[in-house]
């Protein structure tokens, strides 16, 4: 059964993010300041948000025309990104309930390092850490990690599966009561309750144990955004939260139903996966004011900035196609979900590639533009229609977009009983309504999945 109240996460960019948004007069360019993110964290926690989420990129994308020019010049998606784990540490220091999610790629990292980092963050924040698992796909990223070319899609997901398997084993390498701290005996940690994992697989050989005790949440919350067939299957196996984007309510409902069915097929409780579509609401005192704000933001979007971001997401050089014709059918090595979304928009609105670039860079995802009441009406409709378990809220400009939403829309949702007035617990899992996994649950999940396969 779906939750009676929705969950809210904030998609924050540790850099300029949306092409055009950083140019808006209300945008504050504090991306290199810890105080900037701490202020956003306080705003979100005061509004009782579940978590703050940071995407990440491991290169300045050069997929559009083989150059970084369009990204850097336009302040597009990957023009600048600072390390999200360090940002989360600073945000954790000024909050006590807000979940803290960072993206780390399984394509270039090592399981021991990642398991250790997130276990450490979970301890330092009393159980609020979350890991957004991605499988990097850009050649520009590969070239930053001693590779001439990227792994194939199948290899990326095979590596990611084994990566998750190893990370879970490492989190379980300490039993919950292994840290004794008996000063008289002395017994700091009980050796009989700390175990090597001795993993030897196709991609990784890891002895273990981890040198950090089992995380307060058992395992940090796992987030994933797979939209291809392999990605959806991966997400249904491993994820606690799925981040997605849709061009319509209908496609969101179809995705929601499919993921829940896939989770059941993998022996999981479908209610244990929270699906949060991305939205970029623009709120105003009147509908006309909200529309004026959106129009002003949209006007600031350079088409090539949006196209270079889309080229990155699709992993297709869109500079090779005529700008004043429609996007043709193409093979997409990158994010299939974004391709389906833009195909739907192109066919529905008859957009040229130039118009699509502007639309992609400045879209109000979900179409939530209006007064707080109107935006809340739209969110309620999606939620009650079975399209989601909540939303991943993007700010059209930072930090003001978050301030507008938390000041106006959140109270409207609370008044309707659709969103919490107070946090239910102290850990992120508690606030998401997810039980704390028992030691060994990860191994049991792997066994169940292999039996299903």
Automatic annotation (TrEMBL):
Gene Ontology terms, MF aspect: oxidoreductase activity
Region (Disordered): 431-453
Alphabetically ordered keywords of this record: Flavoprotein, FMN, Monooxygenase, Oxidoreductase
Gene3D superfamilies reported for this sequence: Luciferase-like domain (3.20.20.30)
Coiled-coil annotated residue ranges, if any: none
EC number assigned by the record: 1.-.-.-
Protein's UniProt keywords contain Flavoprotein: yes
Superkingdom classification of source: Bacteria
Domain Luciferase-like per the UniProt entry, residue ranges: 17-383
Similarity remark: Belongs to the NtaA/SnaA/DszA monooxygenase family.
NCBIfam families: FMN_nitrolo
PANTHER family: ALKANESULFONATE MONOOXYGENASE-RELATED (PTHR30011), C2H2 FINGER DOMAIN TRANSCRIPTION FACTOR (EUROFUNG)-RELATED (PTHR30011:SF16)
Protein name per its UniProtKB record: LLM class flavin-dependent oxidoreductase
Organism: Rhodococcus globerulus
């Amino acid at each position: 059964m779906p939750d009676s109240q929705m969950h809210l996460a904030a998609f924050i960019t540790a850099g300029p993010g949306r092409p055009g948004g950083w140019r808006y007069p209300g945008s504050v360019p504090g991306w290199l300041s810890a105080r900037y993110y701490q202020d956003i964290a306080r705003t979100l926690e005061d509004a009782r948000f579940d978590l703050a989420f940071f995407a990440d990129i491991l290169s300045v994308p050069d997929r559009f025309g083989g150059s970084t020019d369009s990204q850097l010049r336009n302040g597009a998606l990957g023009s600048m990104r600072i390390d999200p784990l360090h940002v989360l540490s600073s945000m954790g220091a000024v909050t006590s309930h807000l979940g803290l999610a960072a993206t780390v790629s399984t394509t270039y990292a090592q399981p021991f390092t990642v398991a250790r980092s997130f276990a450490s963050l979970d301890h330092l924040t009393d159980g609020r850490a979350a890991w957004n698992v991605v499988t990097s796909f850009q050649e520009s990223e590969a070239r930053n990690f001693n590779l001439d070319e990227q792994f194939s899609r199948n290899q990326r997901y095979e590596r990611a599966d084994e990566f998750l398997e190893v990370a879970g084993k490492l989190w379980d390498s300490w039993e919950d009561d292994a840290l004794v701290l008996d000063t008289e005996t002395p017994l700091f940690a009980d050796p009989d309750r700390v175990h090597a994992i001795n993993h030897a697989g196709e991609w990784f050989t890891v002895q273990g144990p981890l040198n950090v005790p089992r995380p307060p949440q058992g395992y940090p919350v796992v987030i994933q955004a797979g939209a291809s067939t392999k990605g959806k299957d991966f997400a249904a196996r491993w994820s606690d939260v799925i981040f997605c984007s849709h061009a319509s309510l209908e496609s969101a409902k179809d995705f929601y139903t499919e993921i829940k069915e896939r989770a059941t097929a993998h022996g999981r409780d479908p209610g244990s996966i929270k699906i949060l579509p991305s939205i970029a609401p623009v709120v105003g005192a009147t509908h006309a004011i909200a529309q004026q704000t959106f129009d002003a933001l949209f006007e600031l979007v350079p088409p090539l900035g949006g196209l270079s971001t889309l080229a990155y997401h699709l992993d297709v050089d869109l500079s090779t196609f005529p700008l004043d014709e429609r996007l043709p059918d193409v093979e997409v090595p990158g994010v299939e979900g974004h391709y389906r979304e833009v195909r739907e928009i192109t066919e529905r609105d008859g957009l040229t590639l130039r118009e699509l670039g502007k639309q992609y860079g400045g879209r109000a995802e979900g179409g939530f533009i209006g007064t707080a009441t109107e935006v809340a009406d739209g969110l309620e409709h999606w939620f009650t229609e079975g399209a989601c378990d909540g939303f991943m809220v993007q700010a059209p400009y930072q930090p003001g977009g978050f301030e507008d939403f938390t000041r106006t829309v959140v109270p409207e949702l609370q008044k309707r009983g659709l969103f919490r007035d107070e946090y239910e617990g102290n850990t992120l899992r508690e606030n998401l309504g997810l039980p704390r996994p028992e030691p060994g649950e990860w191994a049991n999940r792997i066994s169940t999945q292999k039996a299903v396969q």
